[in-house]
Amino acid sequence: MKQACVKALGINVSRIGFGCASLGSRVGPRKGLAALGRAYDAGVTWYDVAPSYGDGMAESIWGEFASGKRDRVFVCTKVGMRPAPPLIVMRMLKPLSQSVIATVPVLRKHASKVRQAPSKVPLSAELITTSVEESLQRLRTDYIDVLALHRPAVEEAVREDIILALERLVRDGKARAVSIAGDLEAGMRGLDESLPYRLVQVANTPFEPNVDSLRERATPSRTFVTHGTFSCLDQLVAHLNAQQQIASALHDYGYRGNLTEIATAFLADYAFATNPAGITLFSMFQREHLDFNLRRLGNHPTRKQLDPIVAALVEGMRRADPVPSSPLSRN
Ligand SMILES: NC(=O)c1ccc[n+]([C@@H]2O[C@H](COP(=O)([O-])OP(=O)(O)OC[C@H]3O[C@@H](n4cnc5c(N)ncnc54)[C@H](OP(=O)(O)O)[C@@H]3O)[C@@H](O)[C@H]2O)c1
Fold it and tell me: How confident is the model at residue 330 (pLDDT cuts 50, 70, 90)?
């Protein structure tokens, strides 16, 4: 497994992180534990949870997974979002809906629309302290590797009482480092050297190249954690469908399969190539997704190789122009 050095922690972790947003909601505990174990056996050592994930269940399930191997796994949890209150009827139907969704994956998108979204909680020093104590209990540990503010307002990320609360947690050994997990604006603000954030988590795709924007301002001690790799998959497939010349150019560049397979491989390559020193989070509860993402990590094109095609693709989506036709060597 390729490693990323998290300078704030002084450790190497797997470049692929397991995103646990669906752990306990779409994916029940039994299948979730099996998927976490599979990833661990494949060398995944970085896990991303939050009190709001999995309808409030993700941290507890991760705690069960990590017991007995806490010193060999690393976890980022967060503060600032609370899970949606479960509707009684949804709670009763949950085991049924989890197995139906697992059998009929096309229902997944509809299920996420029906499910209520977690909500933002205004940050305060007291909330941070209480939330961390509760997280530690659920995670069955006495320290969190990284504590992230979960989608903070920019004003919250720089507020003195919040900074002091975070620094206290680090001093007390309850969090080893702190981070911002939010949009680009909050992430940018978090790069300020006077602030304690040493990791920044943002979405990153060819159409939302946030890591490039962050890198322009960051010092090398910062670690970027990205998510949302496949969030534009449908959009990209539709575009490739409408503009066959771009699809055939991707074929020339070495991508094979149907349009969905080509787009999936390209998006994974983009995520790895643009964040070569950081961590890319994936939800990987299905075995084939873990296997695929590991394969792409093992052999993805370099940034230099991908850049011309990304530029042409983005430009092509804007102006319906073709991408360059020269083949790219995939060594
Ligand atoms: N800080 C934030 O505000 C924030 C926001 C969003 C996400 N996150 C973190 O990032 C993690 C990942 O989130 P995400 O938005 O990137 O993804 P996601 O929405 O959690 O999942 C993307 C979907 O892609 C599937 N998938 C994974 N690998 C694939 C592959 N190779 N081919 C086809 N499909 C594949 C997954 O399926 P399976 O899971 O069924 O295998 C999942 O259904 C979250 O779990 C969370 O930890 C953080």
Answer: very low
Question: pLDDT, tens digit, for every residue of 294-313?
Answer: 999 998 889 998 888 888 77
Tokens of 266: 């390209």
Structure tokens at 311: 């530029």
pLDDT at 322 over 60: no
**91: CB partners within 8 A, 6+ apart:** none
Token reading at 36: 């976490």
- Residue spans of beta strands (DSSP E) within 173-288: 175-181, 197-203, 223-227, 279-282
Is residue 328 within 8 A of residue 302, CB to CB? The reply is no
- Residue nearest atom 35 of ligand 1, based on CA coordinates: 289
Ligand 1 contacts CB of residue 181 (under 6 A): yes
Does residue 40 fall inside a structural domain?
A: yes
Q: Is 283 in the pocket of ligand 1 (CB under 6 A)?
A: yes
Residue 135: predicted pLDDT? 98
Residue 266 forms part of a structural domain = no
- For residue 111, being part of any structural domain is answered with no
Residue 61's CATH number: 3.20.20.100
199: phi > 0 → left, psi -120 to 50 → alpha, else beta; which? beta
Provide the whole-model pTM: 0.90
Q: CA nearest 25: which of 56, 66, 59, 60?
A: 56
Mean of the pLDDT values across residues 115-140?
95
The answer as to whether 263 is a domain residue is no
Structurally, the chain folds into a number of domains equal to 1
H-helix or E-strand spanning residue 214: helix 210-215
CA of 160 from ligand 1 middle (Å) equals 33
- Give the contacts of 229 (CB within 8 A, at least 6 positions apart): 204, 205, 267, 268, 270, 271, 280, 282
pLDDT at residue 251 in the model: 86
Residue-number span of the structural domain to which 212 is assigned = 3-83+118-231+275-302
